[in-house]
Amino acid sequence: MKFNSVCILGMGYIGLPTACMFTQSGVRVLGVDIHPEIVDTLNRGQIHIHEPGLAEAVNQAVAAGMLRAATAPQPSDAFIIAVPTPFYLNDLGEHDGKSYKKADMRAVESAARSILPVLRPGNLVVLESTSPPRTTTDLIRPILEESGLKAGQDFTLAYSPERVLPGQILRELVENARVIGGIDPASALAGADLYSVFVRGQIHQTDSTTAEMVKLMENTYRDVNIAIANEFGRLATRFGVDVWEAISLASLHPRVKILSPGPGVGGHCISVDPWFLVESAPDLAQLIAKARAVNDGQPHFLLQQLRAALGGNLAGVNVAVLGLAYKPDVDDLRESPAVEVAQLLTQAGAHVLAWEPYKPQANLPGVPQAASLQQAFSNANVLLVLVGHSQFKTLQPAQVAQDTPARLVFDAVNTLNAPAWRAAHFTLHRLGDAKNQPG
Ligand code: SAJ
Predict the structure, then answer these.
(1) What span, in angstroms and rounded, lies between the C-alpha atoms of 73 and 52?
(2) 171 neighbors 195 (Cβ within 8 angstroms)
(3) For atom 27 of ligand 1, which residue has the closest CA?
(4) Per-residue pLDDT at 89
(5) Closest Cα to residue 256, out of 229, 283, 278, 218?
(6) Any idea of the CA torsion for 208, 292, 250, 434, to the nearest 10 degrees?
(7) What's the Cα-to-Cα distance from 305 to each of 30, 211, 308, 312, rounded to whole Å?
């Protein structure tokens, strides 16, 4: 099947780079976004998000007349839905008296509905947004069939998850293996034809529900593995063990690779996607729900450990919080456990001054930010490292000792060179290390 034009709904971290990939292979793209200011920015050849290489790609695509943006879809050969699926923050599902977070499918639903007036026989529709199992068949299909056209007969319909890592999206979109699940084999084939326009990795065809599960399984697998690392950290604390030493020794086993404990799991994927399985089958997804609870509880565990290191009291302590991002060397604060730790500290009466090199002015409630690392250091009683940013790894402890009155350091991500900091007369605590406890 040949595609001359594609309409992509949702001009975010996935939709916009995907649009550029199509245009570079000669396919015209209409990028749809409900926010008029995003549409205007794109039509000027500019971008509203940060991703290496994207600004140039959009500029070229718009200048060449291959990419246009609009607030509503227009007739095209194929439609790709790439809008966000967050979860409801307050409206929780329930099972057995327990509360669960629920996926917010409103953006996906209204994107699908907006295609109705322009859906034509012979079209392909692909959902890329991370979604609970059976969304393509049970939610998208009935909406699209309100057009009077029949899926699998008049148009093809598929699900294809994105698996790219922020910071490397343009490369990974092309190189990563791609899974395309159709509501029938013809739909999977049409999807494979569409993505083979720019994908150089292998394209695997399957059914749509399997493809939905694959994406959720990938991120759930990682979440559960991080949860066990966090639980090992808690156990090590109980038994007087250094979890970092124990993890490196256990990982010498040829079939064992243990991830790292930390302040918790953040970002918009791994801390969210497991809930899509839990909400769909709470009676079955018990380990997954438990892993979420362990990871969500990690900021509280960290606070308890810090309190103990400070001799039992957080009130009135000046804490220099180093790092707010959800992981090293990104500017993304979404669902970041570091932000939660900072807020919990403020609630506990500590005076927080946070330094986030990638977002010095985030304006978060309960998280006063320093204008510089030096300012965060200047009046601190304790330095709390929450993210393994390169800037923190390369700190020189002898220099820091001159910049701060603090002599207590708590490293929640094992990113500092502990012997060097101790040699510079800092009292260094590490999350999950009860073996090398100072004092
Ligand atoms: N984390 C730990 N310990 C570890 C590893 C990570 O505490 O050993 C924490 C990180 O600090 C962070 C969170 O987990 O807070 C998630 O970080 P990550 O690097 O594991 O994942 P993301 O969210 O940046 O990207 C993931 C990727 N999925 C997998 O690795 C299975 C990526 O391929 C997906 O495209 C992306 O989710 C997504 O969009 O779903």
Answers:
(1) 27
(2) no
(3) 165
(4) 58
(5) 229
(6) 160
(7) 52, 41, 5, 9
Does residue 208 line the site of ligand 1, with CB under 6 A?
no
- The SS3 assignment for 49 reads coil
Q: What is the C-alpha separation between 388 and 269, in angstroms, rounded?
A: 19
Per-residue pLDDT of 198-230, as tens digits, reads 999 999 999 999 999 999 999 999 999 999 999
Q: How close is the Cα of 397 to the center of ligand 1, in Å?
A: 29
Residue found under tokens 């718009």: 62
What is the structure's pLDDT at 268?
86
The answer to whether the CB of 269 is under 6 A from ligand 1 is yes
Whether the Cβ atoms of residue 55 and residue 47 lie closer than 8 Å to each other: yes
Q: What type of residue sits at position 407?
A: R
* Cα Dmax for the chain: 75
Report the nearest-CA residue for atom 29 of ligand 1. Answer: 219
The helix/strand count (H/E) of the chain reads as 17, 15
290 lines ligand 1 (CB under 6 A): no
Average pLDDT, the chain: 95
Whether residue 389 has its Cβ less than 6 Å from ligand 1: no
Residue range 104-135, pLDDT digits in tens: 999 999 999 999 999 999 999 999 999 999 99
**The pLDDT value given to residue 100:** 63
Name the β-bridge partners of 430: 411
Q: Residue 243's pLDDT band (boundaries 50, 70, 90)?
A: very high
pTM of the full structure? 0.93
In the reported structure, the alpha carbon of residue 270 is separated from the centroid of ligand 1 by a whole-number distance in angstroms of 6
Instruction: Give, using CA atoms, the residue closest to atom 4 of ligand 1.
Output: 260
What 8-state DSSP symbol labels residue 234?
Answer: H
